[in-house]
Amino acid sequence: MKKWLLLLPLFVTRFIPLQAQVRLAVFGGAHAANVLETNSIPGWDTATRHFERSRTGFQIGAMLEMPIGHTGLFFQPAFSFITKGRIYDKNNDSLTALATDTIYKKSTLKLTYVEFPLNLTYKIPITHNRNNHIFFSAGPYISFIYSGKITTENLTEVPHSVYSSSTAAVTVGKGPDTYKTWDIGVDARAGFELGRVLLSGYYSRGFTNFYNAPYAGTFHHQVVGATVGFWIASSAPAPKRTRDTDHDGIDDEEDDCPLQPGTAQWHGCPAPDRDHDGVDDQHDSCPTVPGFARYNGCPPPPPPPPVAPPPAPAPEIKKETEDKINYIARNILFKPGSDRLTDGSFLALDDLVPLLQAHPNWRLTIEGYTDNSGTPEKNLQLSSKRAGAVKAYLMSKGVDERQLNSVGYGQEHPIADNHTNAGKMANRRVELKLSVQETRSNKN
Fold first, then answer.
1. Where residue 241 falls among pLDDT bands split at 50, 70, 90?
2. Exposure string (b/e) for 114-147, b if CB count within 10 Å is 16 or more?
3. Which one of 1, 220, 281, 424 is CB 3.0 to 4.6 Å from 287, fit for a cystine?
4. Residue 375, SS3?
5. Can you list the domains of the chain with their CATH numbers?
């Protein structure tokens, strides 16, 4: 029997051909094994039961994995060598030791099984590349006894303290005080699959009565432990059979429009064409207006306007005039958070008035700017008001309104770092842009 049990794992892993996507893992671990016993012996619960405890055991084995479709479910048959049993450990008090001549008694039951779990496992990916999972597994097992022994230790008191120890093999069979050759139970596991590494905790419980006691009672194995495993081999995946009805290079399973050629960007569907002009929106410069491919999906452009006569050469503004205009701009200041000019600003603007009045063909654009304090909408409104305040003051001094234009840009186009107070102060500014009105030449 032992010979065939040893050869069975080799037969499974060596002579059964692995099908597509089947993997092989080895695993091992430690656990606490116990025996769940019930009987009708009077006083057993108080005199014996609380002296029984679990013993440390181990298991080592191999596991196959076979996917069940694309559902995340896997069939995982396995085999392992696993030790089970329990410990009876009793230390007598002085009165009991004197009466029974026994100070200490310990009995260790160690049974080794070849076990075959047949689990269904469900895996949930926990990383984007789907190489790491959390898994839950459960299923029945059948095990066959491989070996067993009972070690008994005693410390007696008469005539003086004497320690003795003996080990005896268990008897397998059907008579009293024998152990059954097989056991059936259930196995449940949960853990993590991290690449090729498997980490799991498990619980198993036998359903059959594995021991034929000389008294009426039931005996079931219970094991709680943990294992670590490694995937060591896998078969090459079978070529995936695909179907591409519209021949667009995208499988029908992943194609939202399997009967219309499309692109991967649109999940197998044609690119949208909202204006139905034959130019898809991705290449259409006017996606909501019907047009022509030669104009990138737009209507034909309008004819060019009549050519205006060339402007007469405009007189250049002297550099010293531009420097003076820039100096005046740097001295235009406002009260904080307001469009009210400071007193020093009036002096600077008074120097600008005679220059504009002396050159009626000059045009002055007043640009207002702010720092980034507050919202962009409020800053745009404040900059427009400040530029308008400069324009209004110049008009009040007699400058022709046709020479003036004001515009606000808010916090756009900063000239300094808005993260410093000095930078914010520099960005709260007015710029003056001077130009000369062009005159058209008259040709008869």
1. low
2. bbbbebebebeeeeeeeeebebebbbebebbbbe
3. 281
4. coil
5. 2-234 (2.40.160.20), 255-300 (no CATH), 319-436 (3.30.1330.60)
441 neighbors 312 (Cβ within 8 angstroms):
yes
Q: How far is CA 74 from the centre of its chain?
A: 23
Of 8, 21, 4, the closest CA to residue 237 belongs to 21
| Ordered DSSP codes for 341-352 | BPHHHHHHHHHH
What burial class does residue 89 get, using C-beta atoms within 10 Å of its C-beta: 0-12 exposed, 13-18 middle, 19+ buried?
middle
**What was the pLDDT predicted at 217?**
93
Stretch (H or E) spanning 24: strand 23-39
Distance CA 435, CA 365 (A): 8
Rounded to the nearest integer, the mean pLDDT of the chain is 86
Do 363 and 435 touch, CB atoms closer than 8 A?
yes
CA distance 389 to 404: 12
Q: Which residues contact 346 (CB under 8 A, 6 or more apart)?
A: 393
Q: pLDDT category, 95, cuts 50, 70, 90?
A: low
Which has more confidence, 170 or 421?
170
pTM of the complete model beyond 0.90: no
Most confident range (mean pLDDT) of 155-159, 222-226, 256-260 is 222-226
**Separation in Å, CA 122 to CA 115, 188, 236:** 22, 12, 22
Q: Are strands 211-212 and 197-206 parallel, antiparallel or unpaired?
A: unpaired
